[in-house]
Amino acid sequence: MISVLVEVEKNIKNVVVNKITKNQETNQRKLNINGGKMNKKQIILRSSLGSVFSAFDNPELIELSEEDSRIVAISGRINNPGIYEIPEGTTLREAIELAGGIMNKKDFKAAQFGIPFGGFFTKEQLDAPINFNDFHKGQTRNLVILSEDDCIVQFSKFYIEFLLGKIAKGEYREYLPAKYEIDRINRILDRISKGKATMRDVYLLRYLSDIVKSIVKQDHNLILEVIDNFYHEIEEHIEEHRCYTGECPQLVKFRITSKCIGCTACARACPVHCISGKVKEKHEIDISKCTHCGQCVAACPVGAINEGDNTLKFLRDLATPNKIVVTQMAPAVRVALGEAFGFEAGTNIEKKINEALRMLGVDYVFDTAWAADLTIMEEATEFQERLEKYFKGDDNVKLPILTSCCPSWVKFIEQSYPDMLDVPSSVKSPMSIFSTVVKDIWAKEKGYARNQITAVAIMPCLAKKYEAARDEFSRGDNYDTDYVITTRELIKILKETEIDVANLEGEEFDNPLGEYSGAGIIFGRTGGVIEAATRTAVEMLTGNRVDQIEFDVLRGWDGFRSAEVQVTEDVTLKIGIAHGLEEAAKMLDKIRAGEEFYHAIEIMACKGGCIGGGGQPKAMKKKEVLEKRAEGLNNIDRSLEIRRSHENPQVLAIYEKYLDYPMSRKAHELLHTKYFPKIKG
Length: 681
Ligand code: SF4
Ligand code: SF4
Ligand code: SF4
Hints:
It holds the Pfam family SLBB. This protein is of the alpha/beta class.
C-alpha cells in the first residue's frame, strides 16, 4: 500500500513530509507551519490515552489536504497519529491499521470524519470504503478515532466547543445563523457531563440539532447520530450520574477494574479500610466510605484502579479555538515531576514545567503557591480571632482550629466526625481559592467571561479531583476548578508528546498570580501548612517581626506529633500535626473525648503530606524520596527573600484592590466555605 506519512518533528518550527513509495524511496519536502512561526508549540498533542491535532485549522495543513485529495490527518485513540494518504477504496478498518491500530487493543467505538462538517461512523461502517466526498472542501481532512474507552458525551462536547470556537473566530460562517441553537446544545451537553441534566434535555438536543441540520443543510449531524447510536450512555450520565469511562470530572468515582489480580495491596494501603476482597479475586471499594485519598491507586501494582483521567480532556481543550486555558501548579508537583525525566527527587523544575506547559498551548501559567499565601492570610486571621476570644474566656470559641486544605481529610471528618464540623478552618484550599480568584477577579479584569476560562489545576493529589467537583465550589454549572491533572498525568502528556523537559531552559510563571513566599511553598510537606500559618499568626498576635521563622518543633516524620510554640512570655501554643488518616482519627478521638487539647492542628491524608500524594510519581524507596521532596521545598523556602505570606506584595495588592482585609465580607464570600455531614460517593 502506498502511503504518505507526515512525521511531525516535535518541538520544531516545521513539519517534514516523508513520501514513502512502494519500493521505500523517500522523497522529502518541508511544510512550514504558520510560515515557520509555530514558536515551540506542539502540533500533535499526545498522552497514553490518545492524541489531538493542535493545528486542525492550520492553513498549510488545509493546503496540503487540497493538494492531494487523499491526505487525511488521523488522531484520537490510535497508536501513531499523523497525516496519511488513504488510497482509493481504503476502508475505515484499514485506515485505522495504517495509523498503528487502536491503543491498548481496545474495541472501536466510532470515528468522526472532518470537524465539524463530516460524518460520524460506527462499527457497521468499519468495512466500508472511506468516501472522500464526506470531507468538507476547504478544511483539513480529519479522522478522529474513538475507542470503547471514550466518553461519547465528552467527545460531543469537544466537537461542539470546537465549532463554537471557530464561529467566534469568524470562520464557518454558514453556521452563524444556527449559533443560538449550537450554544444551547453546548450548555445541555455540559449539564449531561456534570450529572445535572434530565431526560427532557435529550429531547431538546434532538430538537435543536434538527434545526441546525436544516439551517446549515448538513448531510450528517453528529449530535443526532450520537443520540441514535449511544442513547444508553447518555441516559446513564443523566439517570445514574455515571460515566463509565471516568472522563467526566464531576462524575468520577474510584472503581476497581477487571485488571485486578487480587494482590490485596490496595486494601492494606487504604486508611479507612473501605476495600475488601479475597486474595487472587477482584476487590471492591465501598464508595460511601472512600475519602478519595488515592493511596490505593499508588499501591496497585497493575494499574487496576480507575480514578478518572483528564489528560485527553486537557489536550482537547488546548486544541479548541478561543478557549483560554489557565493552569495552576501545586508546590509538591515541582519537586517530584523531574523524577520522570532523570532529575533527583526534590529538584525544583518549576521553570521547565512552565515552558513545557506553554509548548502544549496553555495560555496562562500560574502558581498555586501564590494562593497558598492568600489561604494563610485568611487562616492565620481566623486563628488569631479564635485565640483572642479564647484568651478572653469565651467558652463558645472552637479550638483547636483544624487546617482544611486537604479534601480527603475534609471528606473524612464530614463522614466520620459530623459533630466536629465547626472546628476546621472555613478557609477554602489554595486550589479552590486560586480558581475563584482567577474566574471572579482576574478574568473580569482581563475582560473575559467566567465560562471562557478553563481553569486546570496540576496537583499531586487524586482527592483534588473530588474537591474540584464539589458543588460548593461552583456557580451554577460552572465549576471554579474545571478539572485536575495529576503529576503522573502531566508526565504522561509530556513524555508522549516528546517534550524534552530535561533540556528546556525554563520560563517564569505568569503574573500577577505567580509570585509566592517561602511560606506558600512549604504547604506541600507535612507540617508546612501549620508552619506557614504560625509564621503569620505569631507576628499578628505579637505585632513584632520574628527572626527565627523555621519552626523546627513543627517538622519531622512521626505520623502524629505535637509541639509547643512560645509566642510571648504568657502565651504558648500547643500544635498537633498528623499525616495519614489513621493518625488523624486517633487525634480526633482524643480531642472529642476531652483527653487532649490543642490550639491548632494540621491534618494531611497522605504520608509526608502532598509530596506523598496519590497522584505523584510512584517511588521505590518511598521514605527516602519523600524526605528529598520535602527538603526540595525547604530549599526553595530558604532561597526566597519573601518567606512570610503577609509580606507577599501581590497578595497584599489583591486585598487593597478587591478584598479589603482578611476575613472581610468580600473575603468570606470568595475565599471561605462550609462543611456538611455527608455520605457521598
Ligand atoms: S481512595 Fe483512599 S479511601 Fe478511597 S478506597 Fe482508595 S485508599 Fe481507600
Ligand atoms: S492493589 Fe490492584 S491488583 Fe491488588 S487487589 Fe487492589 S486493585 Fe487488585
Ligand atoms: S495530603 Fe495533599 S495530596 Fe494527600 S489527599 Fe491531602 S491534599 Fe491531596
